[in-house]
Amino acid sequence: MIINPYRFAAAYNPLTTAWIAATSETDTTILNALNTFEAGLIANSLTGKFNALYPFVGGNAAKHAFNFMNTSTFAISFVGGWTHSSTGALPNGTNSNADTTLVPLTTLSLNNAHLSVYTRTNTNVGVDIGVGQSVPTRNMFLASRTGGSAIGSINQINNSSVATADSLGHFVASRTGVNTIDVYKNGASIFASSEVSTILPSVSIYLGARRFNATLDNRAARQLAFATIGSGLTAGEISTLYTLIQAFQTSLSRNV
Known about the structure:
Elements: H1 14-23, H2 28-43, E1 50-54, H3 61-64, E2 77-79, E3 82-85, E4 88-91, E5 97-99, H4 104-107, E6 113-119, E7 129-133, E8 138-146, E9 149-156, E10 160-163, E11 169-177, E12 180-185, E13 188-193, E14 206-207, E15 210-212, E16 215-217, E17 224-230, H5 235-251
Parallel strand pairs: 7-15
Antiparallel strand pairs: 1-17, 2-5, 3-4, 5-14, 6-11, 6-17, 7-8, 7-14, 8-9, 9-10, 11-12, 12-13, 15-16
Helix pairs in contact: 2-5
């Protein structure tokens, strides 16, 4: 009897299945890592926390562009000098930027939002993800390290910052109230701020730089191996998310 070898192919969770259909990826190490990560999101009731999630797997710009949460929305448009590889997406810090097309005003909530990145490069310059506007002033950005500090701003005027020794790992800026914003590194809170929210930005969030009004500033040259945008996350949720992301990176031999 001839057995169809595809009959017993592994079944993947819905988001992983959709990502496979969009990218035509066949590397089982990548697919199993994504599926295990998705299973962790489901088990911890975290799936609904993300509007956009970029795992930067597949090794090229086309695959790195897809939003894992919904492959038909918020695809990244990479511009300038980016290096795409199996370990992530690396901007050159000079002319590189990437538009997520996600506009906070139409997608996110003023007092319930977060940004996060996982970086594999230790530098001290630039913004990893974000947007800002003036009149009135509002900032929504995250820098893993610039000027010696991690900086997180979620819909506010002044920045919330704290000294950090390096820019390696998972950084999160999360607002869970009108005067409650926290910055986390590798699952642990490193700064709590009572900076009051103002208004949501009405232009899209960028990666590898900050879009401020119609210009781009604070370009970074740090390799991104994960990025998320979505609802505010509690301390427990951030700790769990870091555990899931670090396991994901470890399974791909690119953890820091």
